[in-house]
Write a structure and sequence with these properties.
Its main location: membrane. This is AI-2E family transporter. This protein is an all-alpha fold. It folds into 2 domains: about 30-190, no CATH class; about 200-335, no CATH class. The protein has 13 helices and no strands. It has helices spanning about 5-25, 25-50, 55-100, 115-125, 130-170, 175-190, 190-230, 235-245, 250-265, 270-280, 285-295, 300-315, 320-355. Helix 7 (about 190-230) packs antiparallel against helix 10. The protein is elongated and about 85 Å long.
Amino acid sequence: MAPRRTAQVAITALLLLGCAFVLSPFFAAILFAGTVCITSWPLYRFLHRRLRGRDGLAAITMTLLLTALLLVPMVGLAASLTDAVTELVEQVRALIEASDGRPPAWLKEIPLVGADVDAYIRKLTHSQLEMRKLGLQAVEPARKFALGLGALVGQGLLQITLVLFIVFFLYRDGARISELLETAADRLAGELGGSLLELASNTVKAVMIGIVGTAAAQALVALVGFLIAGVPGALLMAAGIFFLSMVPIGPPLIWGGAAFWLYQQDQQGWAIFMVLWGLLAISSVDNFVKPMLISRTASLPILLIALGAFGGVLAFGFIGLFLGPTFLALGQALFLAWTASKSVTVADNSEEEAQA
């Protein structure tokens, strides 16, 4: 390779590395903004036509609409979470102050472990040293959990704000960006590049609509049930259902806890209602809504959704809840498309050899 060519390649590589280094703090926000833009593009095109083709006005209108749908509920969730934690601390303090040190009678009736737990609690109540030691052991994990939860919510608010800022420019210049991507895909992989780009777009739309739509439906159904049963903090618990719906056993943890609280309040009828509502309504939404929303593509396995949600949070923070499953679905779709094309190629070669 000539020295001039070597220098050009080295400068280009350094430039690409520099761009990647500068954009790395915003990588997750850019990806999520692109995902949101792709999913909601049909709605943007509708607004664009209604506003007579004015790109800037259509982009700012769509951004304000997303702000109302994403940022405002996040702020409400953060405020509700703060109030709920304060209320929980006060209730625990009141229970401790009102307690005479003896465990409840029903604790001893729990099969297998009830008697041991009852004896251990009685031992603790008669030993101030052990009670103090147990309290000190519990303070630090509780503090770390509270700080981590607050940091996650705060990080989510900042990330959503940044996503909304980026998405405005993606809407405004989306047509031009789409043309550039199509040109790049055509130069890199020819006709296959265009097909993979279309497959990626369709997969992102289907998975995002399926995951977010199912989570929203479950949260709405749960909110109705919580309000009917009179469960406190219904909005916060519905928000928890929304995020935990991506984990297979997530929603039962929320509505099961609500049913247990109702039972503890001597509201056995409402507790039974909550269990039936959770089984027949909340947890059944996934079986009806998701197949309907993801009707034009292969459904993402539950394992990949769970791994995508957990891994996405570890890799990208709060918005990784949505990015993780989307990435895995896209990888699955591209792999299936690649293996299908390989199978077709092998079959064609076999036919040609047979004819020869």
